[in-house]
Every structure is written in C-alpha cells, then in structure tokens.
Design a protein that fits this description.
The complex is a heterodimer of chains A (75) and B (705).
Chain A lengths: L2 E2 L9 E6 L3 H9 L7 E7 L6 E5 L2 E5 L1 H4 L2 E4 L1
Antiparallel strand pairs in A: 1-6, 2-3, 2-6, 3-4, 4-5
Chain B lengths: L7 E6 L5 H9 L4 E4 L6 E9 L3 E7 L11 H11 L9 E7 L3 H13 L4 E6 L1 H6 L6 H8 L2 E4 L8 H11 L14 H11 L10 H10 L11 H7 L3 H22 L11 H10 L4 H42 L4 H18 L2 H17 L1 H14 L8 H6 L4 H6 L7 H10 L9 H11 L4 E2 L3 E2 H27 L11 E3 L8 H35 L13 H18 L1 H8 L1 H4 L6 H9 L6 H9 L11 H9 L11 H13 L4 H11 L3 H27 L4
Classes of the chains: A alpha+beta (75), B alpha/beta (705).
Chain lengths: 75, 705
C-alpha cells in the first residue's frame, strides 16, 4: 500500500511510487532524481520537527513535512 | 554572424559541483563580476589563453539542476547556454559533473546535448569519489556520453591542462543535437506545435520547444513568451504533469541503464555524517550555531571598529589636508565635505562588508549555510521568511548595508526581496548614538519600581521593539504584497557534504561583492552626499566679523554662525516646511532639520542637533553640553521642547523610519531598480509616522506631556 513519505519511520528504506503536489515543485523533485521506482529514505528530522532530511540517489535533500506528504512511497 | 573576435566557453553545472572553484582556477585573477542583462543574477566572466585559439572568453552559468525554469532568474541558465536575450552564444559548454553524484549531475548534461551544444564534461570531486569507493571510469563515460570527459581536481589543479586541451579541440568539433529517448506520440505532437510558434531569436529546435513545454505553467514568470507561443505551448495542468513525468523518467531511465553502473555505490561521506551528528543535533547544533552567530555579530559590531576608525581617520585627514592646501572657498568646501566626505561614507562600509562576506563565504563553501537553513527553517517560516534569512537579519543589528547584500545567499528573488524589506528595521549600530543621546538627556538614571534601571530597560526595549516589528512586517508583507507572497513556495534544498572552503574562492567573492558595492551603490551614495551637502550649504550666510574677539568669543560666534547657516539653508527651510507634518509626533522644526541631516547616516542626527543648537558640530552622544542644551530647549509657549514622551516618540521614529540613503542605494542595487527602495522608504516612513503619532498622542491622552 502506498503511503506518504512523511509517514515512514526514520532510516527505513522505501521505494518511490509517485510524486504529487503543484506542478513546478513536482517537476523540480523529479529533476533531482525522485522518479518512480527510486530508493528513498528519511534520514533525519530537524530539531524543531521540520524540515526532513531525505536520501535519494546518494544525495541528501531537505524538504518540509508538508511537501513530503505529497510523495507516495511503498515499504 | 559571429562578430566576436574570440571564442566563448560557458561553464555550467549543478550547485555544489565545484563550478566556482573550477572557474576561478581556470581564469585566475582575470575574473570579473557583473549582472546578466535584465535580472539581478551575478554573471562571472573571465578569459583563458589557448595555443590554438589565443584568447578564449569564459562565462559562468548560474548553478542549476535543470534548465527548465519557472522564473526569469532561472531562465538565465538556458539563455546563457544558448546565447539568448542579449547574451553572446557560447561555442562550447563545459559541464562540471560531481563524480560522487554522477547520475543526478548528468541530467543537465543530457539536456544540453539535446539542445545541440558542444559539450565537454569536467569530472570534479574525483578525490572525494576515490575516498568514497572509486572514481567512475572516464574513458567508459566518454564512450557512453559521446563527448570528452576530463577528470579534474580543481583544488590542486590536477587535470586542468587536459581540460584546456579538451576545450581547445572541442571548440571546432561538430555539433548536433543528441537525444537519448524518443518522445511519446502525444508529446511529439505538443513539441511540434510549440516549435512552430517559437519567437524569432530562439533556435527552432525540438529541445527548445520541449523547454517551453516544461517551463511554461500557470505560475511561471518567463521572458520572451509571446501570446501565440503561450497559446500553443501552455499545457493543461494534468497534461503538463504527464509531460514532466515522461521527460524526467526518460532521461533518468537512460542514465540508470547506461551510466549508473559506472558510479560507485553511493556511500555517504563519513565525515559529513560525523559532523552532522553534532551540527544538526537538537542541543549541540543550536549551541554551535548560536556561538557562530555570536562571532559573526561580534565581528561586525566591534571587530570592524578599528578598520572603520582607520577609514574615517584617513578621510578626515584627507579632508583636512585638502582644506589646508586649498584656498577657503565654496569649491574647497564641496571637495572636502561633499566629495571626500562622500567617498569616505562609501568606503566606511567596506570593513563590515568584507567581514560579513568572509563568514558567509566560509559558511556557503563549507556546506554549513544549508544546515543553517535546515535548523532555522521552522522558526523563520512562521514569518514566511527563508531559513537562510537568519544571517542577513542578524547582520542587520550591525548595519543594514552588508546585511542587504548578504540576502544573496538565497536563491529565490521573492525570499531576497522580503528579507531586504525588513532588514532595515533591525536596530543597526548607527541608531545607537541617537538612542544614547535621547535616553541620557531625557530619562532619569534611577530604577523603575526599584528594580529595572530605566535607561538600560529603554535600550533593551527598543531592541526588542525593532526585532518584533521586523518579524511582524515580514509576515504582513508576505501576506499582502503579491511579489513577496510566500504561500506554496516549496523549501527544497540540497544538504551537500561538508567540504573544506578554499580561501582564494572566498577572498575572490569578498572582493567581487565589494567592488559591486563600491561601483554601483557607492555612486548613488556619493551623489546623495553631494546633494545633501548642497542642501545644508545654500544659500550661504555671510561669515561673521571676528575682529577684536578673544578665542572663547570667536568659538561662540562661529558656533552661532554654523547654527544660523544650518537654520537658513535649504535643509533648514525644509525642516521648517515639514514641521506641520511632524508636530503631531511632538517634534519641532529643529528636530525636523536633524531628521533630514540623519538621512546621510542616522548618527549624523547627533552632530546636526549640535549645530542646530549652536553648540557646534563636534559633539557626540556623550556630550554634556548637547544634553544640557536639549533639556533647556523650550517651545514658543515656554514649555520644554523635549520631554520623556517626545524622547520616546523620537526613538520610535528612529527605530522605524528608513533614514539611510546608503540602505536605499544598496537595495536599489540588489533589487535592480528604484521600485523596491521607493517602496521601502514609503512604507517605513509611514510606519514610523503612525507609530510615533500613536505614542505621542496616546501618551498625551494618558496625561503625559
């Protein structure tokens, strides 16, 4: 069952299923390599609870929880 | 067609791929910083000499993960690569490709190959890749990509001769578009229809049409899109999303199938992991961050002082030397007070600008600045500010001029503009002498309620007031002003591995920024200084007769003359003319003259008041004679002109009003026009007037005088 990335516990490997959200943001994510099928995991949460640090294609990205909600993954 | 005498090479690459270091390495000291036409995006250019071609120009393309754009600033990347919108067309593009992030970095390479540009790949960070499991095989990569691949180490200069050779040979190579994937029938149809409507100056290629299809969406603000093209190429949201997905999947699909095997398994950098355990730790992370910010603040606030003193000393000496060497005349006066004083008031900002950019450079090049944004995003976002806005905001406590320049660390124009609009509200060090004078002159030394020392509490209070106002202003502006609106602005940022900053890169950036400040903001400040000098000098009052007076009398007569000159000058008359607008705030026209004088720099208020009250312009905020004179000043009805309530109103006015031509000049430079500084001036002055009015009239209603 796909679930939002923000619901996946830390350091749990997952596979990206789909990226949602507004077009420009979604395109930017996909250009950074968040394409369906890629391995993705949440590495860290910033001290104040937001944003998140994610690892995808060996690259560390930071995005907000609300934005991570629009990324669907499968464990 | 090509009228340029020498070939042009563009250097492009993802952010954090080592592009700046490579560019600096190649061009050495022959680099220049300017702006791309029409936008406030820095354009670095330089040149190299190649045996086969002589001089070859180099230009740096702003760092980007993709050429697709949603703003005019992002559009600069494709314009620079293809030579659109008044940019010269590069003959070759050198792509910096981070060897540790091979697949993601090559996405941009594929795009540029689709556009048909000649490409040479410079494989950077090879030392890091070696450490983390192996550098990709350059020969194999060359085979796959169909272009020359040169491993380079920009830190040591290794591989640079090979790169230059590759550039030299690449300049004359054949160029043809290379596509690694075939568009679906529906996308091919969209490409064909968009292609038919591309404007004349753009290449009529499939890749250019695809760029428009990818970039053009509801929220995009792009240049050069004709209505016909928009009709032909703006897709319905669902169709646009389908195109985005098809394109990204196709390019990454090809890279995954062909290149991924060459890349070493991405092992995270152990040093980065170790450092991050501390630097983004809930306790230690904030501890280190606050300590570092303290150092930055302290350096601007006090370490810059000796250098500032030195600059002031040098220009003071120059002024005295000039007025001693030249006959006393209006021209000498203009030279000394207008020109030398004006240049001095520009150069005086350099110590703080250099220091701030030293720290900003270290933080950016080491990768720490991204962590600052990561730590602070939650706090700053509640005011709709970017996480990186923290550094400029904090620097604003020292001086708004370097702080406004430091907004450059943010990528998006909206984030920069919003920060620029609120930084001048922070209590800068130039306001301190004004507060000190007012507090010392008008408020008792004692303690309120037996506990709080009144004077100290007032000082802390005004700091808190200004900080709160700046944050609230950010929130209000981001909710009301369309160009500053922040909703839906995503926060997507790479957390690059920590890297050792290279001092030459940092120094070069410090110098580049300072030069831009001196040449562009400096000229505005200089002109304003001369105008202000004119307002204070004309019409001139004849010098008094000093014959038969002793030294003390001469001093007294001269101070009275200075005062009379100021009061009758255009500035003095302006002060009198604005009296009706400032009397509801509790100010008389003499304070109005002080406010006008303060426009040169806020601390000038103190010396202007000294002149207005005939105690001479050499007073400072600790001056007893000026304090006493202020306490003794009366209105026409014999009541004291300065009461604690007037003092409070004056402090509030100084806290909020945009009385600083240098700030306006630097905002003009950084925002690329007069629109934003004009808005800044109007909104801050209106805010100041309303707040002072509320304080003064409210205080009177409560029975204070």
């Amino acid at each position: 069952m796909p679930e939002p990335l923000s619901a996946v516990p830390l350091n749990t490997p997952a596979t990206l299923v789909a990226v949602g959200g507004e077009r420009g943001f979604r395109r930017r994510l996909m250009e950074l390599g968040l394409t369906p099928g890629v391995a993705i995991q949440v590495l860290n949460i910033a001290p104040l609870g937001d944003p998140l640090e994610i690892l995808v294609r060996g690259c560390h990205l930071s995005l907000r929880r609300a934005e991570a909600d629009s990324i669907q993954v499968e464990r | 067609m090509n009228a340029r005498p020498q070939p042009l090479v563009a250097i492009a690459g993802n952010p954090n791929a080592g592009k700046t270091t490579l560019f600096n390495r190649l061009t050495g000291s022959r680099g220049r910083v300017g702006n791309y036409p029409g936008v406030t995006v820095e354009r670095h250019s330089g040149h190299i000499f190649l045996d086969a071609h002589g001089r070859v120009d180099l230009v740096d393309v702003p760092g980007a993960y993709s050429l697709a754009a949603r703003s005019g600033e992002e559009q600069v990347a494709i314009e620079a690569v293809l030579g659109l919108s008044g940019n010269p067309r590069p003959d070759l593009v050198v792509l910096c490709v981070d060897a540790t992030q091979l697949v993601r970095n090559l996405y941009l390479t594929l795009q540029i190959q689709e556009l048909g540009q000649r490409v040479v790949v410079a494989l950077t960070m090879v030392d890091e890749a070696d450490r983390l499991g192996g550098t990709p095989d350059a020969d194999a990569l060359e085979e796959i990509l169909g272009c020359v691949v040169v491993p380079v180490n920009a830190q040591t200069g290794e591989g640079l001769p090979d790169l230059k050779r590759a550039i030299s040979e690449g300049l004359t190579a054949d160029a043809a578009p290379i596509w690694r994937w075939s568009p679906s029938p529906s996308l091919a149809e969209s490409i064909a229809s968009a292609r038919a409507h591309l404007p004349p100056g753009w290449p009529a290629s499939d890749a250019m049409a695809l760029w428009v299809l990818s970039s053009l969406e509801e929220r995009a603000e792009l240049r050069g899109i004709t209505p016909e093209l928009a009709r032909a190429a703006q897709l319905e949201p669902a169709a646009g999303m389908a195109v985005d997905e098809e394109v990204a999947r196709a390019r990454y699909g090809w890279l995954d199938a062909n290149v991924a095997a060459l890349a070493s398994d991405p092992t995270p950098d152990p040093w980065t992991a170790r450092l991050d355990r501390v630097l983004i730790h809930p306790v230690w992370g904030f501890g280190v961050f606050l300590a570092l910010m303290f150092v930055v603040f302290q350096s601007l606030f006090s370490w810059a002082d000796p250098a500032i003193g030195l600059v002031e000393g040098i220009f003071g000496w120059l002024g005295e030397a000039a007025s001693g060497a030249l006959p006393a005349s209006l021209l000498t006066d203009l030279l000394v007070e207008g020109v030398i004083g004006g240049v001095g008031s520009v150069v005086v900002f350099l110590p703080q600008i250099l220091l701030l950019f030293f720290f900003v450079g270290l933080m950016e090049d080491s990768g720490y600045m991204a962590r600052v944004a990561y730590l602070m995003d939650r706090v700053m976002r509640s005011m709709n500010l970017h996480g990186r806005a923290f550094v400029p905001m904090l620097s604003g406590f020292a001086c708004a001029v370097p702080a406004v320049m430091a907004t450059r660390t943010m990528e998006r124009r909206r984030d920069r503009l919003l920060t620029m609009m609120v930084v001048p509200l922070m209590t800068c060090s130039a306001r301190l002498p004004v507060y000190t004078l007012i507090i010392a002159a008008l408020f008792p030394v004692g303690a309120a309620a037996g506990v709080f020392p009144i004077q100290g509490a007032l000082m802390i209070g005004i700091y808190l007031f200004s900080t709160f106002t700046a944050l609230a202003a950010a929130w209000v502006l981001s909710k009301t002003m369309k160009p500053l609106r922040g909703e839906g602005a995503p926060f997507l940022m790479e957390l690059p591995p920590y890297r050792r900053p290279r001092l030459p890169d940092v120094l070069r950036m410090m110098w580049g920024r300072s030069r831009l400040f001196l040449s562009e903001a400096g000229s505005v400040i200089l002109v304003c200084t001369v105008i202000l000098w004119g307002l204070l000098t004309f019409p001139s009052v004849p010098a008094p007769d000093l014959t038969g007076l002793n030294d003390a009398q001469i001093e007294q007569v001269e101070m009275t003359h200075q005062g009379q000159q100021l009061r009758e000058s255009y500035a003095g008359r302006l002060g009198q003319a604005i009296e009706p607008t400032i009397s509801p705030l509790g100010f008389d026209w003499k304070m109005g003259v002080g406010l006008i004088g303060a426009f040169a720099a806020r601390e000038v208020f103190v010396s202007t008041m000294g002149v207005v009250y005939n105690v001479g312009g050499d007073v400072d905020e600790e001056s007893v004679s000026l304090r006493e004179r202020i306490r003794a000043e009366t209105r026409a009805d014999g009541k004291p002109a300065y009461t604690p309530l007037v003092g409070l109103s004056l402090m509030v006015f100084f806290a909020l009003a945009c009385q600083c031509m240098s700030t306006l000049a630097v905002v003009k430079r950084e925002s690329g026009g007069w629109r934003w500084p004009a808005f800044l001036f109007v909104y801050m002055t209106a805010l100041a007037w309303i707040a002072s009015f509320t304080v003064y009239q409210g205080g009177r209603l409560l029975g204070f005088s």
